[in-house]
Structures are given as structure tokens and as C-alpha cells.
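Regression test attached.
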Amino acid sequence: MKKHILFLVLLILSGCIKEPTEPVYDPEPNVGCLLSPDYTRQQVRVGKSWGIDEENPEMWVSGAEVKISCTAETIAFHELPDKPGVYVSESLLVESGKTYFLEVDYPEGNKVTGETTVQKNLE
Amino acid sequence: VSAERERFKQEIDVGLRHMEFRDLKFVPGFLEQDLFTSIQVMPGVTSVSDLNNALYIRGGNSDENLILLDGMTVYNPYHAGGLFSTFNVDAIKSADLLVGGFPAEYGERLSSVLDIETKAGNSKKFCGKGDLSLLSAKILLEGPIPNGSWLVSARRTYIDKIIDLLSSEKWPAYFYDLHSKVNFDLSSNLRITLSGFFGKDLIYPEPLDVTNFRWSNHALGLKLRYIFSPKVFSTLLVTKSTYYSKTYVTAGDQLRSNASDFSVKGDLSYFLSDKHTLKSGFNLSKFDLMGKCILGFKSLIDYDRKADYFAFYVQDKFKPNQSMIANIGVRGDYWAPGKYLRMSPRLLIKYFLRPDLALKSAFGYYYQFMTVPTYKEEVTAKFPLRMFQMWYPVNEEVKPLRSIHYVLGAQKWLSPNTSLDVEGYYKHINNVLELKEVRENGEDIFNVGRGYALGLELLLKRSNSWISYAYAVTRRTIAGVSFYPIHDCRHKFNIAWNFALRRSWDFGIRWIYASGLPYTGVVGMYTHLGLRLDFTPPSHYPFPDFKYSTEEIYGWRCGLRYPPYHRMDVIFSRKFKLRKYDSFIFGRLQILNVYNRKNALEYQYQSSGKKKATGMLPILPSIGIRIEF
């Protein structure tokens, strides 16, 4: 009988293999920008993703450097004081058919870039 | 001596789980007894949800099981999208489940064979049964004919009819099935058997809407069994089996699939000597396989293919001495399109250490030429969505699925009616198909994967009661990602025990405890910035207006596990004799999930990040009554 019990214990222990567990989630940059000739003020939202277990996560990031350039011109965006993560500029005049480059430097060192060409007006 | 003990002496029953009708009726099922629910008490058999009875056997996918009903292939063995199997338990005589290492006479699937035999019909007198459960009404009639017998069994759900009668509302679903069989002995050497099966489901979620799901299985088979001499006999089986499914939502959203075969199968057995029994056979089939998937008027999948299949096998059951039995065989499969010819060696050995103790082992190659590829099975497999099964043939671009089985085990008879069966296995799987996430023009629509399964199973069987334990590891690698698939159940413990309480009372209990199954968890969230399409800004509006939504970020595929699953079901049955009519009435009460365990079906994540479990079946009592005359 003891042999049988020992066998069963060994069997159960052999089943306790180590399963992989999910690593701690590392937040990623999350940037949204919409350029349109229709707007007099352009806006970039700078944020980050958050782990599922985080309580009161910070979705938006303050203190980032946000720039949009087109040909030789580079426009720096400024953050609205009452809206963290919202960066705006009234100086950037968006024109149809032109290509714009976005550069966001996060305070902790991450850098996000992107580019888009604004559609030409529909005739 | 029981038939099982006799089989232990004579056969190499590697991976064989045999069930009789009397075994099936003592295992509680959802509203009524069900073949697939009963099979799940066997070690090596897993299901992923209370709401879907699809069987995953020794790490194989649910499409890797060959389901045979009197030799006819059944392609979609489910009612109500998977809540119930399509087989009426009353019509079943026995079911043999071969969970691995099966001999050369079986092919076509990688993981298992479920060989169901319907009752032959009473050859002595006319008799019948009527059964009423909360799910369905059933009737079975059987009787003799000159030199033979017949049987008809029908079942239909009736809730829709009751609601029709009592209110102006409509119940949105029903199903029915019909089994029939006629045996006729033309001579003492020749028996003819005609079998038929028909099952159909219809679901129409909104009675006034065009949306509906309908699917059906039907099969017809003619079997000739001829005894040439006491040493030579043969069978010839001609079958036609069809599965058809149509899901219609709108003209722009439709799913259709069809799988049918016309087959001629023959077997010849020759008792050459005390040491050798030769068996050989062939299978000639023509398949029609069709699948269409139209979403948003865009055709995502569209194929309509024919395939020819030819298989032959030869095997020798060899008894070199009193202590050993071997089954050495080879199977050849030919499949076109693709012109694949695959040879599968099979070897099964049983060695008797004592008259009541034997070691057994098996090895074999297994090929499969048609499959049901899914898109990330973990997304849908837990729900009753088995109405649509798209059987896809391998072809010039997609190679046959392949598996290699290694099995080693032992069986010991502890008493004249109690046996302990232990089996360990390793299985390597190649070329499994999965639908790609996004189809790109000109690209194959499948990802091809591989994997393995290993495990150890214990089965203690006493009459029609079982205790089983299974340890299993299943791993898949698809598109470069390795993961434990949703049916990877590390530990599973099962009790299905029956007691004759008093002369007329029976009591059955089933308890299952299983490790949590894998799922793909949400590890993070982000705010998605989109353009509000419902808002047109006026000219020179100062600010773009964003639409915010919280989106989920998924972690490793099947990287997390649900809490352990456990549940207890009981069934009470009481027999009353109606002496005046020479009949019996059986009343039954069954309670599923007696202690109302909330097993997790899935998690839903809220924007706050908290997850909420949706439960499977709660405590569920049901009653039924049966009349036998």
C-alpha cells in the first residue's frame, strides 16, 4: 500500500511543473494626432497605455516635447495647463498635399515619431 | 466472466474506452443523458466548457476525432451548436472510444476514433420506449421481421411547440434526430443491415428577422456481412453521409459549409491459425467539401472542392505464445488533390505478466486529409457555436496533417469485475492548420503549426462505474508562437459511480475536478483616439474633436489559466412496474452542479481594468420520465 501511495505522490508532484506567468506589463507610449486644414488650432494627445492591475492609472503624459515639422519649418507644441497630455499649436498652418513629421520626446526618454501626408481637397 | 475480461484476454485494447448503453444512462447530462457528456468521464478526454460538448482527446483538436455511427462518418456531431451531441442515447448499443495507438484498420483522423453502434432491434417481440425530459420527447420502437429485426428512434425538442400553444411568443430554436436500423439474414451466412440517421437544427434568434442558423447531418449505410467459412468472413459497407450548414444574417453576411462523402468500405478477416489472424480492407471515398464566408459583402473564404480518397490496410494479430499478442499492420492512404500517398506503420503489443496483469504498448503513424481550421480557437470554442464547421481538404499547397503516437501502459484486474488501467503516451503532431488573423491577397489563408501532447492516465473501472485521473501536457507552435492550447488540462480527476440503493432505486454521482484551462488575458489598456464620425466640424472649427475609447492589450497567447473547474452532478432513478401492462415506468431526477460552483466561462474586462467572470452552468435540477413496454 505504501508503494502505491508513494507512486501517487510522485505522480502528483511530477504534475506540478512550473507554468510560465505573464511578465509585469510595461506601459507603451500612446500618441494621437489629427491634422486638418479646417482647424485653426492643431492638437496632439500624448499618453501611455497602462497595466490591467494598475489602480488610478496615468493615461496622459505631461512634460513631453512635441514638434511637428514640414519642409524646413518646425513648430513646437505647448501643453495646455489645465489639460495634461494635450499639446496644441496655433502656429502650424496645415495645408493639403503636404507631408508633416511628428516627433514626441517623453520625459522619461521614449521617443515617438510619425509622418502623414494631408489629403488633397476633394474636387 | 465479463465481456471486458474476455476482451482483456483476447485483444490488445490499447487506448480503448468501451461504454455500453447501461453505462451511458447513469451519467447525468445537461437536461438529459448525452453520449459526449458520458465520454468525458474517461481519462484523456477534455471539454473546454459546459456549453460546448466538443471532445479534445489526448491533446488533439476536436476535428481530429473520427466519429462513426454504424460505420458512417458524422461530420458535425452536435445539436444546439454543441450543447448536446447529435446521438440519441436510447438508440445506442455501445460506443468504443479509441484514444490513441489504434490499429491499421482505422485511419482518416489524428487523435481518436469514436465507433458508435446502434441497437440492432429486438428480434423476438415488438417493444418500445418513450422518454420525456425537459429538453426533448423521445420514442424508440423495435421489433422482429422474418429473419431479422428493425428499430426506429426519434427525438425532438418541444419547448417551441409548448410556447406556441401557450403564448404569442416564439421560441427561437429546435432540433430533431432520427435513427433507424433494419437487420435481415438472407441466409445463415449473409446478413444485410440498413442504417439511417438524420439530424437537423434550426435557430432563428429573431422570429421576424431573416437571420437564421440551420445545419443538418444525414447518413445512410448498407452493410453486408458474409461468412465464407468458419475461418473467413467479410463485411462490405456502402455509405453516403452529408453535413450541411447555412448561417444567414443578411445578404452581405453569410456562412455556408458542406461536407459529404460517398464511400465503399470492405474488410476481410481470416483466422489463419491459432497464432495468426489476418485482417485486411479498403476504403474508397469521394468527398465534396464546400465553404463560403461572406462578411460585409466581401468574400473571405470561398472554395468548393472534390477529393478522392483510397485507403487499404493489412494487419496480423499474432500470438507467438500464451504470454504475448501483437498486432502488426500497415495502412496506405491516397488523397487527391495533392496526390499524396502516405504509408502508416502500426504496432500494438500486449504482454501478460500474469493472467490478470498485462503490459501493453502501441506505436503508429496517423494522417488526416481534411480538417476544420479555426481562427484562434480560444475566441469561440467555449460557446455553443458548432453549427458551422468548415471542413477543408488538404491540397497541393497544404500538406496532410500527421501525428505519431507512442503508448505504454498496463492493465490489472483487481477483482472479477474491477480493473485498473494505466497508460502513458507521447504524441507528435505536424501540419495543423489555423485560419490567419488577416487574409492578405494572394497569400495562403492558413498558418501551419506543430505541437506535441504527453500524459499519463489512470482508469479504475468497476462494472459501470469509473474513477479516473489524467495528467496531460499539450503544446502548440503556430506562426512562430508557442503556447498551451485552450484544452491543455494539466490534471483531471473524475468519478462516475453508480449505486443500486434499493431494489427499485438507482443513484449515480459524478464529480469532476480539473486544472484551470488556459486563456489569453488582457494585460493592459490604452485610450484609442479616433475621429468622431458622427460630428462634422464647422469651417475653421478651432479644435479637432476626438472620440475616445478604451482598448484592450492582450498578453501571451493562452498565457493565463482560469481557476480550477469542479462540479458535482447526481441522478436518482426509480423504477415502477405496471404489472397489468407488463411495462415499466422510470422516473428520474438529476441535479447538475449540486453545490453551485461558479466555474469561469470567460472574463470580461471593464475599463477600470477589473475583470468579471461569467459563470458556466449554475445548479440545475431537471426531471424526466421513461416508459418501457
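Expected vs. actual: identical. The first strand of chain B starts at residue 16 and ends at 20.
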